[in-house]
TrEMBL record:
Biased composition, class Low complexity, residue ranges: 110-134
Upper taxonomic lineage: Eukaryota, Viridiplantae, Streptophyta, Embryophyta, Tracheophyta
InterPro entries: HARBI1-like (IPR045249), HARBI1_dom (IPR027806)
A GO term, aspect molecular function: nuclease activity
The protein's required cofactors: a divalent metal cation
Listed Pro residues bias regions: 72-91
Classification via Pfam families: DDE_Tnp_4
GO terms for cellular component: nucleus
Annotated family: Belongs to the HARBI1 family.
Identification of the protein by name: DDE Tnp4 domain-containing protein
Domain of life: Eukaryota
Chain intervals for the UniProt region annotation (Disordered): 68-134
Organism: Urochloa decumbens
Keywords for this protein: Hydrolase, Metal-binding, Nuclease, Nucleus
Keyword Nuclease attributed: yes
Amino acid sequence: MGTFLAPLPSPQPIFAAANDPELSSILAALLAMNEDDFGSGEPPWADESFAAADDLTTTLPAFFFDQHDPPAAMPFPAPVPLAPPPSPPVPVDDAAHHQGTPKRKRGRQATSSPSGGASTAGSRSTTRASSSRRVWVRERSTEWWDRLDSPTTCPDAEFRRAFRMSRATFSSLVDALGGAVAKEDTALRAAVPARRRVAACVWRLATAEPLREVSRRFGLGISTCHSIVLQVCRALAAVILPAAIRWPDDPAAAATGFRAASGLPGVVGAVCTTRVPIVAPRNNLAAYYDRRLTKRNQKPSYSVVVQAVSDAGGAFTNVFVGLPGSLSDAAVLGSSALCCARHGEQQRLVGGSRYPLTEWMLVPYAANARNLTWAEHEFNGRVAAARGVARGAVRRLKARWRCLQRRTEVRMQDLPSMIAACCVLHNVCERAGEGIDPELMRYDELDDEEEDDGAAAAHGAATASAAAVQARDRIAHDLVVLHGSHAIANSDMAFQSKFSEHHSLMTHPAQ
């Protein structure tokens, strides 16, 4: 079937519209507005192929007329020339442009005229607008930090209480980090100085304040402050850690300090394991479950393990971080690099009863396994004195850097670098002779190490090698021979006194 077009009943309205001068001008204007449809910038009647305006005629299609009325020639009205469209206004001021003028799309070019005047004016106005463009940056107050950083407004004692170190030690730390934390200024904004970056990180680690408060103190945004803390922690772990935390180069010199403090021969370090509370992880939740923290907090708690080896001066020589908090001290030691290293009799370590007894690890005798001899009692006292150095170092570590005492919002992948940064700062303070405020040591969270377990000690002695047991017995015997003769004599006198008192009570009971 074809398409059927019904003819119009009467051609009079068409002829009336074509012969009316007013309607003809309107029709010519409508045709001129569609000049782009002809593929040229000029109207079609400007071409030479078109006739003069007075001679233009056209023939209407056949379906406009009745089939019994033949079509007739109709004069075409003369076109009316149209004025070129006005060019869009160019904003003079950038602020006024943003307030009252809608934004222009990128890549849009100014309309050019045949003479090129529009393009030249557009380029000039664009250059003038770009030169007056300004970047909006929120001004934040740094008055609090400026007061602490100035020696005239903040004495050194107040600075030490705030950042756990003197101003001279802090300046040396900033110089050591150098370009690892420094940033360059850009065309958009000025970079945060390296000194303020390091100060924000140290304050965050020392006080464990929320990021909102830390950012307000140092004139930073919250996200910027969080990024700066992580960047400085990574820089501390990458730049300063290899030189600050290292195994002693001279084991004999390191053993001298422990021999003077405890009398144990060949001891170069004391091992202590602590836990750092964390937010419940998304994966492997049961592995990070901490039984002791859960009992103390009365709610499910989770942690990661920090194993530290301390020298006689309280500085760390080896740190192992990141394992789940549910692991035992012996399991953590077995996973660390200490087990893989070759230790001899001149490089022994001292540990608690929860560590295994080996040829290079000295642990105390189990108190509840059997009655201890005087030599074994003396040996346990010397081991406790040596381990007290490591436990004191861990207590000062947590006292200085309170972020290790409470849960933080740091992600699991960023937690090892944060803990390593705290250990680096601890060594910086210890070797610089920085004291610690006694008020910081009055926290129950510092005593998070479990008491020595006699059952664990007995199990460790049962599984130890014969050579390790003989080495420990020989050291205990030598301690009594060299240092414990007067202690044994005093103990015998005390026993004789107690026996005489008991015999007198039995012979002459009270009336």
